[in-house]
Specification:
A: 263 residues, mainly alpha, 11 helices, 0% strand, B: alpha/beta, 6-stranded mixed β-sheet, 4-stranded antiparallel β-sheet, 8 helices, globular
Amino acid sequence: MESGDVGYLGLAASLVLVAVALTISRRLRLRLERDLVVSVVRGLVQLLVVGAALAIVIDPDTSLVWSWLWVAGIVVFAAATVKRRAPAVPGLFWIGLAANGATAVVGFAVTFGLGIFPVEGRTLVPIAGMLVGNAMKSGIVVVERLVEALADGRPEVEARLALGQPWSAASRPIVRSALRVALSPQIENTKALGIVFLPGAMTGLVLAGVDPVDAVLVQLALMYLILGGVATTTAVTALGTVRRLFTADHRLVSLPRSTRDTG
Amino acid sequence: MSEAALFQFDSVSVGPPGARRLDGLDAALPDHGLTVVAGHSGAGKSTLLRLCNRLEVPSAGVVRHRGSDVAQRDPLELRGEVAMVFQRPVTFAGTVHDNLREADRDCDAVRGAELLERAGLDASFLERDAGELSGGEAQRACLARALATDPRVMLMDEPTSSLDGKATAVLERLVRQLVAGGTPVVWVTHSEEQLRRLADHVLLLADGRADRSGAAKEVLGDGER
């Protein structure tokens, strides 16, 4: 067995850790056993399928069109996921599509335009996955935070609207706060890079036998891309979302968890 | 030709059928003095007030302000003319002066002190943290902030409901001064005592409709005011 290979036996051995999680869930009566098993099996099947498909797509003889289609699929799935997490926001799918699409476009423009990586199937799909995957998480955080903060903060927003402020000004403190909440984890991750954790791409490369310095360079380029992608997605998602939560005549729409009083 | 009403409600309904907050309301509020809108909880008082500055829109009917359809007005311009003080004082982060600048970007210390004086607070409040004011002080700071837009009409949505008796009396006196200065005020309350103390004109709501309306003397009777 080579240094980076795991093999099916190794994979089976790693399931011991799942058994640890199951034991903890049982002992503490968390009732997460079913979810744990489902997530492990689902993750296993999904990744095996993805691995097989990736092997085809990144083959140098396969047309790049398939890689681009895969990237498009990632962006669409990310948009659908964001939409599912905040159904109260009208048109959120399209906002998510624009936000994650913009992240992919900006990320690819920098990555390939500046020659950081070559345009190949083996770079396109994994980079899109990392970029959009991280950006999507921040997009979800910013949408959920915005909806909750606007519902709870309705009195302040309406006090501002009543002063004649447009929706953009009336919502600005809440949008800023939501953006800070969504961006902070990624900024903290970047700060703690190499000290608290060794990130995925680098770990994978080192395990696969790549020189650690080369692995670090790849990881740094990816981390900066992810940071930019997260910032792009959260900004586009936040601005798109908040626009949809106000009417054209500058009224805050009805939101779940609203605490407004009426006489 | 008779004077156009300050606000006129023509067959105004708000909310879905079966859960109307206002239900075919026909009423007119006069363009002078202090009009008190009263009624039990859920009668539609706050909803009526929010229609006046377009924080809500009717699902049926027309709301007119001095003769023009509110729906046809620029909402930001309308809200600049029709200010509102809410039930609970909502101050923004920062000092009282920062709060005033949210309403009038050019509000300097002189203008700020003048606005605070009209709201019964002295100039030393300008640099106070708005989050540390008492309930009564915060509500007066909100009144000063609403006055900073130089409104032509003032809407007051149960503004004393969270205040003690002393703070209530101060706010009522300040609003009386505002009315005496020529600014018509629409004041929502569920308190019959306050209705009798304050009203020049009365609109009584019940179940989203006008129950009675007119001059306070006629609607409430002379003796008890």
